[in-house]
Structure formats: C-alpha cells, structure tokens
Design goal:
The chain is an alpha/beta fold. The chain folds into two domains: 150 residues, Rossmann fold (3-Layer(aba) Sandwich), CATH 3.40.50.10860; 153 residues, NAD(P)-binding Rossmann-like Domain (Rossmann fold). It is built from 13 helices and twelve strands. A seven-stranded mixed beta sheet has the order 9-8-7-6-10-11-12, with helices on both faces.
C-alpha cells in the first residue's frame, strides 16, 4: 500500500497526538477529541433530467462545538467518503482554535461529480441535501461553507432552501446559516479570495521571520481553482514569479513566469490549465521536479508523497490544501531541510472571513474590503506569532506540531474551566 492510500483520518490523528504530546494533553481529552461528536449520513433521491432518480450519499461530520457553533465547508467530489470528511472536520476544529475564532469544527460533502450534472440537476442535489440535513444545521448551530467542488451559488441555494423551511418571521434571521454566499445575497467582501489571501499573509509572516524575499521568488502551484488561483494572482502582485502549475488536466511551466491573471481566465473558460498557450506543457510526472523556491499544494489531500517528496526542490511548502502532505513525505521533507507551513494555519483565511461574514449577517452590516483584509491579516498574524512563540518555548522543529499545540492548549483550558458534563 502506498503511503497516500493511508486513511486520512489516521493521518489527522497522528498529527493530533504529536501536538497533544507536546502539551501533555490528558488521556480523557485525547479520547474525546479523537472522535467527532456527530457523524450524520443522509441518502437522498434526486430526479435527473432523463426522468430517472439517483440516490446520493451526503455527509455532515460535526467534530467539536466546544468553542462555538460547528463550522466548515461542504465538498462535492466523487472521492468524498466518511474517513476523509472526519479528517477534514477535525482540521476545522484545530483551525478555529488556532486562530482564536469562536467556532467549532465540522465538514460535509456529497460523493458525486458536480461537473457531470446540468445546472438544474445540481441545484436539486444541493437543495435536497440541505433539506435532508434539516435541523442538523442551523445559523447558531452548524454553519456550512464552500469547499472543493462547491461555490457561492451552492451556498445561495442552501441558504434559500433553509430560509424557506424556516417560519416567515425567521426568514431574514437565518442568512448566516451558510457563509461564502454571493455579495448580493449577504456574502462578505473578500470571502472569495480569502483562503488565497490568507496563504499569502502566512507566507509573508514566514518570509519576515526567516529573512526570505518574496519579491522575485519563484512559485509552483498545484491546483488552480479558487485557492490556488487567488494565491497565484496575489503573489504575482507582490512580485513573485509563477513558474509551474499542475492540475487534474495537465501541467505547465515557464521559468520566465506564467501570468496568473491570464491563466485564471483560461481556467475559467476551459476548466483546466492544460492547453494554456502562455507556457510550456510538461509531463505531469515531471511537475514536482520543476525548481521553485515556494511550492503551494492547493488541490486535494495526499499529493506530496513518499514518491515525489525526494524530487521537490523548494525551500518551503505552503499547505494551501487540507492535508496535502502524507506522514511519510513530511519525514522526508524534514530530513531534507524543507520547511512545511501547516494547513491548519495557512489555509484558515477562508474560515476567518466566513466568521466575518457571519458577524456581518448577524448585525446586518457590510464591511469594506480593506477592513476585511486588515482584520484577516491581524487574525492570521496573531496565530502565526503564537506558533512561532510556542515553537521556541517548547523547542520543537515542526511548525505543524507547534500549531497543533497552540490550538489544543486553547481547547484544554476551556475544558478545564467548563468541566465535562455531568
Ligand atoms: N472549506 C474551507 C476550509 O476548509 C472554509 C470553511 C469555512 O469557511 O467554514 O477551511
């Protein structure tokens, strides 16, 4: 079995225990936090345009609500499965705790390919999923958001379906049932690019700490969707050079720099970087070998593996995706002196601006983009500082372990003060 075939939840647990060891987390808290609180699975039928019904399987895993309502995206992808969603849900808990956001952690998904359906079929799937979840989600209870394969439109359908099942007097009050909505329906400025923006803020913080110059640095990005695309565009504005990009359709490279804005337009039209005329097309097997100072995995989990970790030339790996590095790969990278900026810190920008959206909806306000970006940066830099400080205090090398220790300490303190009922 290759290391990328290991259970994702097993990887998540391994990371959790490493962080827990650093702060001597009690065995009681370990057993509580190493399982989600609720695992909800719904099977629901949807009529397709050929007149037939297809039964879809959807998940909502609620990992922890100790610090606030359950929070996390819904993923639409054929590979969605219980083990994956459990891992993703636990990562949301650590992200909220690490960034000091008063939310818990959850994740959902439906195992299907959204690109294989007509728009009206997709709408019925999303609405029926929302209906099937029923009161398992709620604006102060569990708040979904976009993730891989879902987008602002999916969130609007979820919000509208939920609002229509609420009483007439409640309808205006439930907008914050989901975040990541379109601007017109109650979304926040900056939510769309928030994860990519957060990736760049974390990278800036690291660059400052180690004395690395982002301007002129070369960057390679795996995945050029919402997160990878925004990261590439913002880094380009900061003077970095995008030298390689790979996605499910192919890989491209150009050591003089690929224009991230032109590439975004191309991907919007063609659904993949493959065929982009502004760069050389390379064999996807050669992608990991392309020299770049910064490597940003921004696609699926388990992409940096024992098979390719030895080929990577980067100085730093910035985990824009959730769980992109396998345990084996991480060991190889550490031995080779390649830094890893961990996912629960690096990609928390989406969650943070989701919180801002939820706050705006709750108080019927609209903040400016500058305000959102400023608060996002402050929130993330505080979390980065906390990781740097604890890493020094505990004298640990791994930034991931230090980030887990910061998050788990916050949960530990709240458990100590609240106690465990009854
Ligand atoms: N799906 C995103 C994540 O994995 C955002 C979650 C949210 O905004 O709640 O962090």
């Amino acid at each position: 079995m290759s290391d990328s075939a290991t259970s994702l939840f097993a990887t998540a647990l391994d990371q959790f225990h490493r962080g827990a060891n650093l702060i001597d987390l009690s065995s009681d808290l370990r057993s509580i936090l190493s399982q989600p609180k609720n695992e909800i699975i719904v099977n629901f039928p949807v009529r397709l345009n050929n007149g037939k019904y297809q039964v879809f399987r959807g998940y909502r895993i609620q990992h922890s609500n100790l610090l606030g309502p359950y929070k996390g995206g819904v993923r639409f992808h054929p590979m969605v499965n219980l083990d994956e969603v459990k891992a993703l849900a636990s990562w949301m808990t650590w992200k909220s705790a690490l960034c000091d956001i008063p939310f818990g952690g959850a994740k959902g998904g439906i195992s299907f390919d959204p690109n294989a359906l007509e728009v009206d079929e997709l709408e019925r799937v999303v609405r029926r999923f929302t209906h099937a979840l029923g009161s398992n989600i709620g604006p102060d209870h569990d708040i979904p958001a976009p993730d891989l394969g879902s987008n602002a439109q999916s969130m609007v359908w979820m919000m509208d379906t939920y609002a229509n099942s609420a009483g007439a007097a409640e309808r205006q009050n439930v907008k914050r049932i989901v975040t990541g909505k379109t601007m017109e329906t109650g979304g926040s400025p900056g939510r769309d690019k928030a994860t990519g923006q957060g990736v760049v803020f974390c990278l800036q913080h690291w660059a400052d700490e180690v004395g690395f110059d982002l301007a002129g640095a070369s960057v390679s990005i795996q995945g050029f969707g919402n997160v990878g695309g925004a990261t590439g565009r913002i880094l380009q504005v900061h003077g970095a050079r995008l030298v390689a990009v790979a996605d499910h359709g192919g890989a491209i490279s150009d050591e003089d720099g690929i224009d991230a804005f032109d590439l975004t337009d191309w991907v919007r039209e063609h659904g993949t970087v493959a065929g982009f005329p502004g760069a050389m097309w390379i064999d996807p097997d050669d992608y990991w070998r392309v020299p770049a100072d910064i490597l940003v995995p921004a696609a699926l989990e388990n992409q940096v593996t024992a098979e390719n970790a030895g080929q990577i030339q980067a100085q730093v790996i910035v985990e824009a995706a959730n769980g992109p590095t396998t345990l084996e790969a991480e060991k190889i990278l550490t031995e080779r002196g390649i830094e890893v900026l961990p996912d629960i810190l690096v990609n928390a920008g989406g969650l943070i601006v989701s919180y801002f959206e939820w706050l705006q909806n709750r108080s019927a306000e609209r903040w400016d983009l500058d305000d959102v970006d400023y608060r996002l940066r402050e929130t993330l830099w505080r979390a980065c500082d906390a990781v740097v400080d604890l890493r020094t205090d505990l004298d640990v090398d791994s930034r991931r372990d230090a980030a887990y220790a910061v998050a788990l300490r916050r949960l530990q303190v709240v458990y100590e003060q609240r106690g465990i009922f009854p």
